[in-house]
């Protein structure tokens, strides 16, 4: 295998491609969520309005598809946003852009509705969500932080407490948490004003050069200022490993609960629960399952190019005799399931799957 050194132009081009994949304002994303955190007057609403205007200019968004929840004043009227209550957040139309302002106190019921929206609805309905809060403390937001794709902070010293409290949710260990918060403080007071973005999935922190660069979606806008990998000492690693074991158990429990919430009221609920329990024991541990109960199958290193299997959809095809002919990928997945475990005929009611058992 031959190799060659990249030219400076090729290297810069590659870096731009890699940078452009980071998309905290959701310009290139089909769905997703960003949480803006900061006290009044630090620039949260300014950035949100500028981003929404840019979405409209790019014609990725129609004014009537913007739903404003808990917003005050007329900032969003010029965008054609429609008012909606937080209680409706989990039932808004497909391809909507949801704007949730001033989360001061969600309440338990709305906390659960927001979790369902972040965890399931955004993906399945191709929705995007911008949410804003002054604080993570005493808002009932803390349990939902890990379901956001990005958390965006104006780089103000007054925001340091918010940043630190959210970083602590991820239990990185004392030394790593100090490095993350130190990187945040280094960006405060710089001109032009910086925005700090936590990439929740990868536990990476980025600094954006300016509001204008973010809105222009320039490839070199974001620079990584802190990351989890390689920053943990041996003593912290033991702490993180033990926490991972706890988190894995919690994750399995949460995903199971999530499935039960989704099928609540479903006429084949008992049959579907039995199917999920079987999959959980025999098959699902072989895959990384997303919070919205999707597994990615294939040999490609990243998720692009892999086959997506919705476990909820697969089980519906499995247990519902009237669900019709499933797509080929679900038939193939079912063959794989049958190789790994015995699937009782009492569970399988779809004729397309029943044939595979005979």
Describe this structure in words.
Helix 3 links the parallel strand 4 and strand 5. The strands form 2 sheets. Strands 3-2-4-5-1-6-7-8-9 form a 9-stranded mixed β-sheet, with helices on both faces. A two-stranded antiparallel sheet has the order 10-11. Helix 8 crosses helix 9 and helix 10 runs parallel beside helix 11. The longest helix has 29 residues. It has 2 domains: 220 residues, 3-Layer(aba) Sandwich (Rossmann fold); 122 residues, no CATH class. By secondary structure, the chain is α/β, with parallel strands linked by helices. It is built from 11 helices and 11 strands.
Give the tags:
2 domains, 358 residues, alpha/beta, 11 helices
Order of helices and strands: HEHEEEHEEHHEEHEHHEEHHH
**What is the CATH H-level superfamily of the largest domain?**
P-loop containing nucleotide triphosphate hydrolases
Indicate the proportion of strand residues: 5-15%
Amino-to-carboxy terminus distance: 48 Å
Shape assignment = globular
Low-confidence stretches: 1-6, 8-20, 231-250
Structural class: alpha/beta
Largest sheet: 9 strands, mixed
The value of Rg in angstroms is 22 Å
Helix content: 40-55%
User: Going across the major beta sheet, what is the strand order?
Assistant: 3-2-4-5-1-6-7-8-9
- The total strand number stands at 11
Number of domains: 2
According to CATH, the fold-level topology of the largest domain is: Rossmann fold
């Amino acid at each position: 295998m031959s190799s060659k050194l990249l030219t400076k132009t090729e290297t810069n081009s590659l870096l731009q491609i890699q940078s452009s994949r980071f998309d905290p304002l959701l310009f290139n994303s089909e769905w997703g969520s960003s949480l803006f955190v900061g006290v009044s007057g630090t620039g949260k609403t300014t950035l949100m309005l500028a981003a929404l205007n840019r979405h409209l200019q790019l014609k990725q968004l129609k004014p009537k598809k913007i739903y404003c929840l808990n917003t005050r004043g007329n900032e969003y009227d010029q965008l054609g946003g429609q008012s909606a209550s937080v209680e409706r957040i989990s039932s808004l139309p497909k391809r909507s852009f949801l704007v949730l302002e001033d989360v001061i106190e969600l309440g338990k019921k709305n906390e659960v509705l927001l979790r369902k929206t972040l965890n399931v609805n955004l993906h399945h309905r191709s929705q995007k969500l911008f949410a804003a809060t002054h604080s993570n403390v005493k808002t009932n937001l803390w349990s939902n932080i890990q379901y956001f794709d990005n958390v965006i902070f104006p780089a103000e010293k007054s925001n340091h407490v918010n940043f630190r409290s959210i970083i602590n949710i991820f239990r990185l260990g004392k030394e790593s948490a100090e490095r993350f918060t130190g990187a945040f403080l280094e960006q405060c007071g710089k001109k032009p004003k910086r925005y700090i973005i936590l990439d929740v999935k990868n536990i990476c922190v980025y600094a954006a050069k300016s509001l204008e660069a973010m809105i222009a979606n320039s490839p070199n806008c974001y620079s990584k200022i802190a990351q989890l990998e390689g920053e943990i000492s041996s003593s912290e690693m033991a702490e993180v490993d033990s926490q991972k074991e706890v988190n894995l158990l919690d994750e399995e429990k949460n995903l199971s609960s999530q499935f039960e919430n989704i099928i609540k009221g479903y006429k084949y609920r008992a049959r579907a629960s039995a199917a999920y329990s079987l999959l959980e024991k025999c098959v699902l541990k072989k895959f990384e399952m997303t919070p919205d109960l999707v597994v990615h199958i294939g040999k490609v290193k990243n998720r692009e190019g892999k086959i997506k299997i919705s476990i909820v959809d697969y089980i519906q095809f499995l247990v519902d005799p009237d669900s019709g002919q499933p797509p080929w990928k679900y038939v193939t997945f079912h063959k794989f399931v049958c190789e790994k475990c015995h699937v009782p005929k009492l569970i399988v009611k779809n004729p397309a799957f029943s044939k595979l058992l005979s």
